[in-house]
Amino acid sequence: MEPKYYIGDKVWIADAGMKQIQIECPVCYGKKEVTLILGNGDSLVMPCDGCSVGYEPPKGYNIGYEYKALAVQDTIKEIRCEYHEGRADIHYIFISNRYEEEANVFDNQEDATKLSAVRLEEHKAEEISRSDNVRGYQSKNYSRKAEYHLREVKRLAEEIEYHNRMAKYCKGKAKT
């Protein structure tokens, strides 16, 4: 079986999966420091604890994860052909050390983006089906699940209200 692409070709890869993202620190808002106003009116500028980890200094952001789908361009550095049960599977290894099947590699960005979008939709559908089958079996008691989720929505709304109240209180104390 002849490979579709060769070593040195720049191609587009359909990429979908959990990606690390940076979330602005909710305490210092990216400034890496906070001001503490003492009871006597003095203020102290100190490093933010909201975005520092262990002994590391504050970064101004926290790390989170999000499922993303995108097209990535890379250059092929190696081609491998593996035979399984009478069929040949071609895999490409890229300069970035990615290992991809031929089905994920495209000539142009549009085709790679389309496949990535399809994978994103498949992931969303899988998440919904997983929530339907939480414990490994299909439960027909949807009223129980609905009750649980409605209770959680109410609890979280109360928690949001409490934290908003406390944040306003802290801001008010800091200004006086």
Keywords:
176 residues; alpha+beta; two-stranded antiparallel sheet; flat
Could you characterize the architecture of this molecule?
The protein is α+β, with helices and mostly antiparallel strands and 176 residues long. The chain has two domains: 10-25 and 60-139, no CATH class; 140-176. The chain is 33% helix and 35% strand. It has two helices and seven strands; from the N terminus they run βββββββαα. The chain has helices at residues 109-132, 142-175, and strands spanning 10-24, 33-37, 43-47, 61-84, 87-94, 99-101, 105-106. The strands form two sheets. It has a five-stranded antiparallel sheet. It has a two-stranded antiparallel ribbon with strand order 2-3. A hairpin with a 5-residue loop joins strand 2 (33-37) and strand 3 (43-47).
Give the helix/strand layout.
Layout: E1 10-24, E2 33-37, E3 43-47, E4 61-84, E5 87-94, E6 99-101, E7 105-106, H1 109-132, H2 142-175
Antiparallel strand pairs: 1-4, 1-7, 2-3, 4-5, 5-6
Strand order of the largest sheet: 6-5-4-1-7
Mean pLDDT: 85
Determine the structural class based on helices, strands and strand pairing: alpha+beta
Number of helices: 2
Low-confidence stretches: none
Query: What separation lies between the terminal Cα atoms?
Result: 76 Å
Taking all Cα atoms into account, the compactness measure Rg is 25 Å
The count of DSSP E runs of length 2 or more, i.e. the number of strands, is: 7
Largest sheet properties:
5 strands, antiparallel
Number of domains: 2
In helices, the fraction of residues equals: 25-40%
Strand content: 35-45%
| H/E topology pattern | EEEEEEEHH
Shape label = flat
